Amino acid sequence: MSGIRINFKVERPRFFVDVDLQLPGRGVVALFGPSGSGKTTCLRAIAGLERAAGAYVSVNGAVWQDESRGVFLATHQRPVGYVFQEAVLFDHLNIQRNVEYGMNRVPMTERRVSLEQVVELLGIGHLLTCKPATLSTGERQRVGIARALAVSPALLLMDEPLAALDHSRKNEILPYLERLHGELEIPIIYVSHVLGEVARLADHVVLLDGGRVIASGEAVDIMARLDTPLTRSDMAGALIVGTINGHDPENHLTYADFHGGNLALPYHDAPIGQPVRLRILARDVSITTEKQIATSILNILPVTVQALSDDNPGQVMVALDAGGVRILARVTRKSIATLQLEPGRAVYAQIKSVAVLRVAD
What we know:
By secondary structure, the protein is of the alpha+beta class. The protein is built from eight helices and 21 strands. The protein is globular.
């Protein structure tokens, strides 16, 4: 049976986690929530580092734990790769031998990832003869990911792998994480409390709070729901999956089709027909009842008001339907009253081209 099944309960003084999840067996699943919500405990339970009574863990048909039948595979028996916030490397070994240390744990006949593939994916070929002490924090983390992949895992667990890095180092590593997502068949469970990382990497999102699952589903759906804490964030917004359909190099613009129309965005040298993942923040969307003509805004989409959320005393989050794709807009209560916005009303969504963010291909 494909898919990842996790069911466990941990109770300690002032700490509680109760999780029952059925997750996709491929792609990137993001566990998102505030500190103390149970994200790392979930990873530890999957890896066999946290044993709970009555727990059940299976990965794509392989049962790692079923306490009802007395089944429990120890951590070293589970084909799992684990990436921590900071890479823990053997300082006395060079980088090649660090990576090979993980690879040597796997019999030759069971290896699904070669040293050459890992080195190329993480871009560490020029570091192989170096010692860990000479590496930057970003380079160390790439090596840590390489070593986790070298065990040819059936599942890769990543516990906030960018948390210890500054902004420039995060931007250095994110493209490599995208490559893992695009080029390997190994499913990834990725823990983060940074919404931008989740939007960029995740196919499926699990929201955790207070040790419980409050929402779980495809990223494009979860990110645009009005009934989750995500909509209260300043970074709240919608994910849109589209296709590159044109370029305007002279004006430094690229165009992408999606079910709700066509979007202009900052120029990106991508081939026509290539899928593209876009993010539009709710704060960058305005609403008008009539289509504007004399305006600098290039993206004006016909939409229908779906729902309104009024958790904030001064602002309202508006869910808009654009050809079956949900877009979010954050506006003031005064705007709601002035425009007489209510579910079912046909309006226009206005989005600056510079505000359309290309998060991943």
